Predict the 3D structure of the following.
Amino acid sequence: MEKHMLALQLSHILGEPYSREWVYEQLELPKKESFGDLAFPCFPLAKEFKKNPKLIADELAEKLKHPHITKAESAGGYVNVFLDQSFFTEETLKEVLANDRDYGSHNFGAEKTVVLDMSSPNIAKPFSMGHLRSTIIGNAISNLAEKCGFETVKVNYIGDYGTQFGKLVAAYHRWGDDDAIQADPLTELTRIYVKFHEEAKTDPTLIDEGRTCFKKLEDADPEVLELWRWFKDVSLQEFDRIYDLLGVTFDLTRGEAYYNDKMEGVIKRIAGAGLLEESDGAQVVRLDEQELPPCLIRKSNGTTTYATRDLAAAIDRYESFHFAESLYLVGHEQTLHFQQVKYVLDKMDLPWANDMHHVPFGMILKDGKKMSTRAGKTVLLEQVLQEAIDRARENIADKNPDLKNQEQVARQVGVGSVIFHDLKHDRTHDVEFSLDDMLSFEGNTGPYVQYTHVRTKSLLKKAGYEKEDAEVKLVDEKAWPLIKLVRAFPKVVKESYEQYDPSRIAKYLLDVSRSFNHYYAHNQILDSDQEAGRLTLIYSVNLILQNGLEILGIEAPDQM
RNA sequence: GUCCCAGUAGCUCAGCUGGAUAGAGCAACAGCCUUCUAAGCUGUGGGUCGGGAGUUCGAAUCUCUCCUGGGACGCCA
């Protein structure tokens, strides 16, 4: 609101050709506290006025008068504006108290549904760090969507189909060991899957054998079907353990195989729309106008592809949920695939195809290279989580040995550090895997934010703070940077959702934490002359940290 | 070969869709616990924003080009 206010004032002074909107776009947040709270650069005006920007700034600063602006000064071609701190402090604290737990929420998503395709691990393969990104980012975006008023449907689209399972079955026929699979399913299944690919290097007939086995699966051969079910069951059990640890739930867990009997119908629809063409014995949809390679619908041996299944799934999702947005939390490397799927639906005259968005993310690299199951080069998420929890436990024993619920807090902090580490990075960038980095509890980390939350909680508890007798008046120059951050929260939530970018929340929480800790270290809060007002500020910070961590899917313990 | 993405401090990353002296954290070094949890705070050192050209009042940010790394490019998903 202060930005609109200033834009209006400046536009008024400048006159007709300079609209409020234009001025609003020009306004910036100064980089330094000493430059005030808002700044208007005068360089664009210099040319038109044929005047030195400094002179323009001088004049504007002189003319700018408003009850809620305490000072306007000209510096380096800018008009630096200082806001009335006590007025805006009071406004901010009132706003927080009025909304309380809903502070930062919006309702522009009301009556609309967002479907998220997330996590989507492949059965018979270990849950890797790569799946973590999809799970964690998807979960956070889902939480953001709910903050904005949307209904969400989280779908775990399990990879339980395709030639890879033919290969797995073929591998099982050769080297399968039932006892070993019972004992440690994913490890054993991965072992024979890796072995299959190694052997296939010298014996290419194995690949055909795999394809044949998949064909049998698609034709519902009882023996193959039985194996497939078994692999699937044991895998899902393993995945559930991890979802429990992460605290992530789904509204729908559905495998690709679910769409098996819907394939022919979809293919008929595509053909009916006159899109299907024969090519090298396979059936494809050409996407020449989009300058994309054709989308493969049916392979030459008659089996379907994952594109076909994604098409069937997309149609099914629309018919089930009539989504406003359908998001796919899937790695960067599948960008082309989702473009193809979208265009095929578009060509089928399904207008909602435009509401589908691939939300890509970068890969987790090991020594600068992609980690691949086939090469047996993956880092297992569960081991990482356990290691994180162990380190958190050691920390507690060292720093707060009398803490109650140590095991629970160790879990919250350990898991929180892993989740936060993932979410603080720009979604689309690749990240180099580093255990030490991920399990660090100092600096820009999840535990740092959690610890800050604990501090606010502890202050409120000690003071016996009650929201009912909150004081919204606070004159405290030192608190101003923190107040400004509190003010920004709703906007950060909105932008974070619109950009599908949880890292904005993570970075914001670090800013809030840093600002709070600085304030905390330099100002007495309890038993100070403005204790009541300061506590309301602490309450606001507490609310934001708790809310923000919740959005990221991280728990906030009261003590640690 | 074609297309896409990235390159910022020793390391990991920010940099708000073109603006003021490019910022955090880690690591290193030096301080701060008889006061609200030291998982914290304060300070120091550390940069040719991959190279080059262009656009303009102004470029880490936009355009072009080159270098480097990564990814994708119908019968894997």
The radius of gyration of chain A is 28 Å. Chain A has three domains: 2-83, 118-259+325-370, 387-552.
